[in-house]
Write a structure and sequence with these properties.
It is a single chain. The radius of gyration is 17 Å and the shape is globular. It has a seven-stranded mixed β-sheet with strand order 3-2-1-4-5-7-6, sandwiched between helices. α3 packs across α5 and α4 runs antiparallel to α5. It is 35% helix and 18% strand. The protein has a single domain, classed as Vaccinia Virus protein VP39 (Rossmann fold, 3-Layer(aba) Sandwich).
Length: 223
């Protein structure tokens, strides 16, 4: 399955916009980045004094294997990205500038992955190999909701239960739309699910939108 995963990394600056993060308020905090892939958030955040652990199936591979795939995967995506009608370019301006973000992300990631492998934990949702309440904040981007066509509602529910088990503060999931730029039908289902009644789900608007409609994240807190 790992061979079918396209590796596209995102930067600390992008995470700040996705999740409305205030880095100064996170210094000394423990943060889990679920589905972190080849993003540079873990590396850059740790450099800011934020204790980030990244979690992804891809971390079962060696640094060399991930490096072999990073640039080809990036190139395969960017052959057609400029013609996708559901993308807005107010932040990146051009496909070339967005490509620079992605390239910078995976290069920083690869360096940190080699130097600090302990920050990167391999595994797959809905199972997280961490103790209860291990993290102050958990972030997850471009996996839950985005892949609604491939991942069942039950998978989403179980993943959120597991995320909240290891999180003593709150979780933030971005975006709340699918890759087809449609609002995820799972969001209202989560809100009305009696299994999740001890949690409060709130959509928070951001000032970032690349995929049409991707201008909010879902905040999950205990009631």
């Amino acid at each position: 399955q790992l061979d079918r995963v396209v590796l596209l990394g995102r930067t600390f600056a992008e995470y700040r916009r996705y999740f409305l993060l205030e880095p100064d308020n996170l210094v000394g905090k423990t943060v889990l980045d679920v589905a972190g892939g080849v993003s540079s958030f873990c590396a850059e955040a740790n450099a800011h004094g934020i204790h980030v652990t990244s979690f992804d199936p891809i971390y079962a591979l060696t640094q060399e294997k991930i490096a072999e795939r990073s640039e080809p995967d990036l190139e395969s995506v960017f052959r057609t990205i400029g013609s996708v009608p559901t993308y807005r370019w107010s932040y990146y301006k051009t496909p070339e500038r967005m490509r620079d973000f992605r390239q910078r992300a995976y290069r920083i990631f690869l360096s940190d992955y080699k130097a600090h492998r302990e920050r990167y934990v391999a595994g797959e949702l809905p199972n997280l190999p961490f103790a209860d309440g291990s993290f102050d904040l958990t972030l997850e981007s471009y996996f839950l909701f985005a892949y609604q066509d491939r991942l069942s509602y039950e998978f989403h529910r179980d993943s959120i239960l597991e995320i909240m088990r290891v999180t003593r503060g709150e979780a933030r999931i971005y975006p709340t739309v699918t890759f087809e730029a449609q609002p995820s039908e799972y969001v209202p289902m989560l809100r009305s699910d009696p299994v999740l009644e001890r949690f409060q789900f709130t959509e928070i608007k951001t000032d970032f939108e690349f995929l049409v409609g991707s201008n909010s994240f879902l905040r999950v807190r205990r009631r």
